[in-house]
Amino acid sequence: MLVQIEHDIAPAAQPTVAVLGHRSRVAALPQHLPHGWRMRLVDGLDAIEPGELVVLSGATVHDVRLARAVLPRATRVIALIDDWAAAELVSGVLTAGADVCVRGGHPGILAGHLVACRRRQLTERWASLDLSQA
Questions:
Q1: Contact by Cβ (8 Å): 38, 16
Q2: Is 22 exposed, middle or buried (0-12, 13-18, 19+ CB in 10 A)?
Q3: Among 32, 44, 66, 67, which one has the highest count of C-beta atoms within 10 angstroms of its own C-beta?
């Protein structure tokens, strides 16, 4: 006999990438995101929704520190910097709390990092479930 079990766990919303900063650097990103993903441009950190992946385009250490201070800890912050940025900027944004630092370039590379961030986000969500009370 088959019985349908009701779960309290809501399905994950479609992944959304919120971009703050230099818009021209991410103009071609939507064509490289997986089907069903969406990208939206935001004007400030207060416009970020829970669960979104946040790209700080043209990120500085200050930008990442501010994002980490304002956004929930579970929010993935991706720092997009110039191809020619100094190594100190890379280490600075990572030390400030960016989950990933991507040097500018092909949007497919950024999309790949976003997919990896989403997988880690989902993995942590499932890993934190307490199944002993199910």
A1: yes
A2: middle
A3: 67
Of the candidates 31, 36, 32, the one whose C-alpha atom is nearest the C-alpha of residue 13 is: 36
- The whole-model pTM stands at 0.84
Question: How many Å apart are CA 67 and CA 96, to the nearest integer?
Answer: 9
Amino acid identity, position 108:
G
State whether the Cα torsion 119-122-128-130 is positive or negative: negative
- Confidence tier at 8 by pLDDT (50, 70, 90): very low
Return the amino acid letter for 55.
V
Q: In what order do the strands lie in the sheet with 16-21?
A: 38-41, 16-21, 53-57, 76-81, 100-103
